[in-house]
Design brief:
CATH topology: L-arginine/glycine Amidinotransferase, Chain A
Radius of gyration: 21 Å
Number of helices: 11
Strand content: 15-25%
CATH superfamily: L-arginine/glycine Amidinotransferase, Chain A
CATH architecture: 5-stranded Propeller
Number of strands: 21
Largest sheet: 4 strands, mixed
Helix content: 10-25%
Distance between the termini: 60 Å
Structural class: alpha/beta
């Protein structure tokens, strides 16, 4: 008597972005636009909010010369105020699009979508976006408006949107991830930290292990090589975002911040990250070129150390914006990045006031890639 064969498992009816040919592009690949949200949450800059909108004006002034800038505003009054400020600094408003949406905070790197591209796609299938769940770094309660931003962006742009889920502890949950927690080279490699994604402190996805996260990166972003660094810098409210630590600047080169003073609490953790990168390999098994960036002297406010880091730069079309801190190391950081981006203008943006909000240039921007040719 024969035993009936076990039927094959039913395939998942919904293909993942990677199965459809999508990948997360590197930041230096061509942009259609940069997204920012105009600052309004005064509690993020206690006692120093007044200069912050003018820092944003300077950011938009530079970005609008090389690509469109989409600015999220709460309504007409904010739009008119922002327009007046931009015109005062000779910004071409034809390069600016205002998008009405309410936000809790303005860190679109984390609350905004992760865009993906399909190099073989056609028409409206060339660009899509991943809508991760945003829970304010597993730390703050006010995040419902921010969590809706990717859906609003997808609707505005008419893009396909994925909302990744993971099965854990007997239930299906949306995956929590912030853009500042990851950095990619566009070829299949991704940087992240154990402190941010695997720690029980500010746990984004409790019960989800390293292997499962790597599977999520593969399915959603087309990543096949994850490089795990250790922990973030002192003062980082996000508990270990990689965009304050190490960044790809081309497919095989990574910059990493290092602290030269052995007495500084950042010294040992950053040396550990440096060692890991020196031992790491890319998606093809090749070693990386690792270039150190300095750290500025500690930036303090009311005796609290702020997360000042030159690694929080933003790469735009023909332009790199770099946070500066009135520090002698500013020049070294700018020169290092200028040597690594010979085809882009490297511009410093004064960020001593901005960093009081616990983020700077990369944290507040989100690139929208151009559709592949």
């Amino acid at each position: 008597m024969s035993t009936p064969e076990t039927p094959p498992p039913t395939p998942d009816p919904t293909p993942t972005p990677a199965q459809l040919g999508y990948r997360m592009p590197a930041e230096w690949e061509p942009h259609e636009a940069t997204w920012i949200a105009w600052p309004h949450h005064r509690e993020d800059w206690p006692g120093k909010f007044a200069p912050v909108p003018w820092v944003y004006v300077e950011i938009v002034r530079h970005l609008s010369r090389v690509e469109r800038v989409n600015i999220v505003v709460e309504g007409r009054r904010m739009r008119d105020d922002v327009s007046e400020k931009l015109l005062a600094h000779n910004v071409d408003l034809n390069q600016v699009t205002f998008v009405k949406a309410r936000t809790d905070r303005v860190w679109l790197r984390d609350s905004g979508p992760t865009f993906v591209v399909n190099d073989q796609g056609e028409g409206d299938q060339r660009v899509g976006l991943i809508d991760w769940r945003f829970n304010a770094w597993a730390k703050y309660d006010d995040h419902r408006r921010d969590n809706r931003i990717p859906r609003r962006v997808a609707r505005k742009l008419g893009l396909k949107r994925w909302t990744p889920r993971v099965d854990c502890e007997g239930e299906s949950r949306r995956v929590v991830l912030e853009g500042g927690a990851i950095d990619v080279n566009g070829r299949g490699s991704l940087l992240t930290t154990e402190e941010c994604l695997l720690s029980e402190v500010q746990a984004r996805n409790p019960g989800v292990d390293r292997q499962t996260l790597e599977g999520i990166f593969a399915d959603q972003l087309g990543v096949r090589n994850v490089i795990w660094l250790n922990q973030g810098i002192v003062g980082d409210d996000t508990h270990g975002h990689v965009d304050d630590l190490a960044r790809f600047v081309d497919p095989t080169t990574v910059v990493v911040v290092v602290e030269n003073k052995a007495s500084d609490p950042n010294y040992e953790p950053l040396q550990e990250n440096l060692r890991r990168l020196q031992e790491a390999r890319d998606q093809d098994g090749q070693p990386l070129r690792v270039v150190p960036l300095p750290m500025p002297e500690p930036v303090l406010f009311d005796d609290d150390r702020l997360p000042a880091s030159y690694a929080n730069f933003y790469i735009a079309n023909r332009l790199v914006l770099v946070p500066t801190f009135n520090d002698p190391a500013d020049r070294e950081a700018l020169n290092t990045l200028a040597s690594l981006f010979p085809d882009r203008e490297v511009v410093g943006i004064h960020a001593v006031d901005l960093v009081l909000g616990l983020g700077t240039l990369h944290c507040l921007t989100q690139q929208q890639p151009a559709a592949p040719a």
